[in-house]
Amino acid sequence: MNEPRGISVATVIDVVLPCLNEAAALPWVLDRMPDGHRPIVVDNGSTDRSAEIAAARGALVVREPRRGFGAACHAGLATATAEIVCFMDADASLDPGELPRLVNGLATAELVLGRRRPTSLGAWPVHARLGNAVLARSLNRRAGTRLHDLGPMRAARREALEELGLTDMRFGYPLEMVLRAAQAGWRITELDTAYHPREGRSKVTGTVRGTLRAVRDMRRVLAAHATQPTPAHATQPALVHDAQATPTPAHAIQPAPGAQPTHDTSPAPAHASQVAPTRNAQVATTTAALEGRR
Once rounded to an integer, what is the mean pLDDT over residues 132-143? Predict the structure, then answer.
């Protein structure tokens, strides 16, 4: 790993960014990182210039050869040294400028989640939103929480996170964090965060197959924790909605010189009438799979 430039570990908040081929998005993400927040980019087997671009912008780069979202998050948390650790995606769907609000939320909670608010229709595909809603409902039923979103942007105290003993190495990691936090009696808070169209093609929410893979992993985590009791004092966690949060303007991301663009080049339907059948088919496929896993 490389050492970040101009960072005092004693005063920073560590920000873990799992990364797989995000060369086009990283410049925008890292350039918007707030002062006092140290980005830890965990390269999870990228074949583009992600690691090189991150290092050039002063991020601490960690290479995690084990493939999996959870594996990357584990590596980032193990590398972090700050008292407070944040997590967020590296695909430019979330604005790092919103991290300080989540960190401030730790004054009254142990875990602060960013509740995604799409800035456009294409920011959050309908099949992915459906899968998220079903999982959130299952989580609330199992853990006694009252959450609306299993958002990837979140903040917590590092030592407390380590004590949760998270083990999932795949897409179940975000859900496992909330489950174990609820079982430990943590106060869990939601704050609205703007959710932008990501840069490049999504590995998960951009396809029904990717969404179902993530749902499968999270269902497995739910099943594994089904027999573990939730403390009585964790059934009514603090829940805060930031009604004043306003979506940030749509942003243009310019790939770094020499980086390969990751835009989805598949042709768009010629007419809006062609979109509805495709979308409805995706919803039907996702719903059937979700209902089958209950």
Answer: 90
The Cα 243–Cα 100 span in angstroms is 17
Please report which confidence band the pLDDT of residue 200 belongs to, taking 50, 70 and 90 as the band edges.
Answer: low
* Single pTM value for the model: 0.72
Taken in order of first residue, the domains within the chain and their CATH numbers are: 9-245 (3.90.550.10)
The Cα–Cα gap between 235 and 224 comes to 19
CB 38 within 8 A of CB 15: yes
Output the 3-class SS for the chain.
Answer: CCCCCCCCHHHCEEEEEEECCCCCCHHHHHHCCCCCEEEEEEECCCCCCHHHHHHHCCCEEEECCCCCHHHHHHHHHHHCCCCEEEECCCCCCCCHHHHHHHHHHHHCCCEEEEEEEECCCCCCCHHHHHHHHHHHHHHHHHHCCCCCCCCCCEEEEHHHHHHHCCCCCCCCHHHHHHHHHHHCCCCEEEEEEEECCCCCCCCCCCCHHHHHHHHHHHHHHHHHCCCCCCCHHHCCCCCCCCCCCCCCCCCCCCCCCCCCCCCCCCCCCCCHHHHHHHHHHHHHHHHHHHHHCC
* pLDDT of res. 199: 85
Query: How many Cβ atoms are within 10 Å of 230's Cβ, its own excluded?
Result: 17
- Helical packing angle, 275-292 and 208-224, nearest 10°: 20
Quick: pLDDT tens for 71-89.
Answer: 999 999 999 999 999 999 9
Reported as a single tens digit per residue, the pLDDT across 16-33 is 999 999 999 999 999 999
Q: What is the pLDDT of residue 78?
A: 98
